[in-house]
Amino acid sequence: MGVRTRRARKHSKTHFIGFGAAGILGFLALLGIALAVSLGTLVDSWLEDLPDYTSADAYLVAEPTQVYDADGNLIAEFYLQNRRSVTEDEVSPYVLEGTVAVEDERFYQHNGVDPQGVIRAAVGQLFGGSEGASTITQQLVRNTVLSDEQFEISLKRKVREAYIAIQMEKMYTKDQILMMYLNTIYYGYGAYGIEAASITYFNKHASELTLNEAATLIGIPNSPSYYDPTVNMDACKSRRDLVLRRMLSNGVITQEEYDQTVGTDITLNLGNSVMDENGTYPYFTAYIKELLQQDFDSDTIFQGGLQVYTTLDPASQQAAEEAVQETLTDIGDDSLEAALVAIDPDTGYVKAMIGGRDFNANQFNLATQARRQAGSSFKAFTLAAAIGDGMNPQIYLNCNSPIQASSTWRVQNYANTSYGTITLARATEYSSNTGYAQVAQAIGAQKIVDTAKAMGIDEDLPAYESLTLGVIGIPPIQMAEAYATLASGGVHHDAVAITKIEDRNGNTVYEHQDNPTQALTAEVAHATTQVLSGVVNHSGGTATAVLNYTNGVDQPIAGKTGTTENARDLWFCGYTPQISVAVWVGYREEAPVYVYGSEGHPSNTACPIFGRYIAKTLAGTPREEFPEAADPEYKPNSSWTFSATKSQSDIEEDRKTEEKEDKKEEEKKEETKKDQNSSSSSDSSQSTETPETPSTGDGGSTGETPSNPGQGGDTSGGDETGTTTPPAESGTGIAAFLGLWYNSPLTLPWLL
Known about the structure:
Blueprint: H1 3-46, E1 65-68, E2 74-78, E3 82-83, H2 93-103, H3 115-126, H4 136-143, H5 155-171, H6 174-184, E4 191-192, H7 194-202, H8 211-219, H9 233-249, H10 255-261, H11 282-293, H12 298-303, E5 307-310, H13 314-331, E6 337-343, E7 350-354, E8 372-373, H14 379-388, E9 396-398, E10 403-404, E11 410-411, E12 420-423, H15 424-430, H16 433-443, H17 445-455, E13 473-474, H18 476-487, E14 491-492, E15 498-502, E16 508-511, E17 517-518, H19 522-537, E18 558-563, E19 569-575, E20 580-586, E21 594-595, E22 598-599, H20 606-618, H21 648-686, E23 711-712, H22 733-743
Parallel strand pairs: 1-5, 3-4
Antiparallel strand pairs: 1-2, 5-15, 6-7, 6-20, 8-13, 9-12, 10-11, 12-23, 14-17, 15-16, 18-19, 19-20, 21-22
Helix pairs in contact: 2-8, 2-9, 4-5, 4-6, 8-9, 13-20, 14-16, 14-17, 14-19, 15-19, 17-18
Region (Disordered): 624-732
Protein name: Penicillin-binding protein
GO molecular function: penicillin binding; peptidoglycan glycosyltransferase activity; serine-type D-Ala-D-Ala carboxypeptidase activity
């Protein structure tokens, strides 16, 4: 083949390629034109019915979030109270330049939408980053003019947002837009706008902010709750340092200024800040706000005009407040606190909540945020787990004290009281630590954990046998939710405080959907409730004092008391068919509780609160019964082995022997009585004297004789009538804590 021929063929080939490429590019161009025309038509439809964005007032629109109780009464509003608009010359240059450097470094170059920022964000997200693409102008539009659409995640909203941002920049200068943004953005702690934030955190005007202070405030709007320096100083400081690095890289500050400021402390000087209004029931509405913050940003909560419908029953709440107030007043300790949560077992609805004595004095919610040791009130989960595993509540346990449950776990009852060999049901009424330690060993700790979790306990629960003694901190709301599972016949409902949320236009953005689960079988729940009823109704039960406060109430009541080391935490978790209530009494700073000069006990703290609450809400209400069910299928008692208890067959033999001896003794007494009566009759027939009339004077009260708590046991279980203060029930005690220590890889440094 000649050179000319080869060249000709090569030329022909290149022309072919050229013509092909041209065809493809032409096709793509035509396709692009067609798509552009179609997209243009679609975009035009999206830009119809835009809200008015031509007025400056449009960028300051804010409507309060309104909160309603179950009866439809307005109980709180979350709205802007602490906002003070300022002009550019009233703001520190550090704030002006730093905000641009951090939020939108090309703010002065783009026309409202930054293509480079979009590309940068897309690339960042492609490689796992989370950088946003919205400009300051877009953020202002989204939080104000398009606030009604801020829940919508769609291309349509982004197009509308971008269009208005571009139009806005034709109407206002960059500096005007920046000031609108700074006067609108939320800085946490109830402060809206840079001036309010400056006064709130540093008690000075925005024009007086130092570099350190300015960088601190610039960083907060990224996540106002997380970077709030009054709550999370470490996170705020880290964010402040990031802002300083951005300011340095953008030439806003010098290297010297950066070196002098980075890593230094943030010194707050809180000014006169007006917080959002928490309304009539501040602990409950603060809890509602906490729930909203899990799903909505702060701007939406405080400016979005939400309508929030809750489960709070005003009558039930009033009863709870009165019950707590009356009891604490009787005790006479102004520092003593109480928490109460009442839940409807059929729905999980929170009907009442007391989170402390005074919200203005301390906003920490003891009902939902405090995690205090549950003490013996946790034994209800061990009981349910044991019954669910086939253990009959009438099985016998050695409840003497102390016992060596294992080579490393020595357990004793409160005051080292011995109750003898008694049934599991009776051990529950007396709240025997030694008995329950053996039950936990017999069934295994994991079954207790699984049962508690299924019933509504969300806390991390270590699978150690000492868990049964209530050494883990649990909020009252979870205890009320878990006990409600028993009241409903084993059906668990999540605790619910919000039933529905609407946006400012009346559109439903959330509605609660009930999703109950069968946590316990009906049989197990019924059997557990029967045992827990004895804690309240049987002589020697640790909660019989409840009955002193329930005049007019004709309802079955069940529950369990709880007392922790040195009476630091005093509990009663009780329920009727209509309501489940968890009551905690103690100090915010953990310390022993003394009532009337003696160590506190649920009988004179938590039980009166529960009883008074029940009386105020259920007195005169027609009686209802707990859900009925057959007995569970129990394993033979002989199949269980307990570490400190004889075999059940040996116990039965011992009991038969004791019964025979008791019968012989009774027969002997009867014979002696007959002989005495015979002798007395003979003597009487020979006597003519008139017997003296017994005195009717008030030489002292006979009272009631406390029942003997178990065979061979001590009688220190207290007066079953509840008229006197019974000794604190099992609680956790030193031995319990040592048990957890020995059984756990965790070291409890406070024990050392």
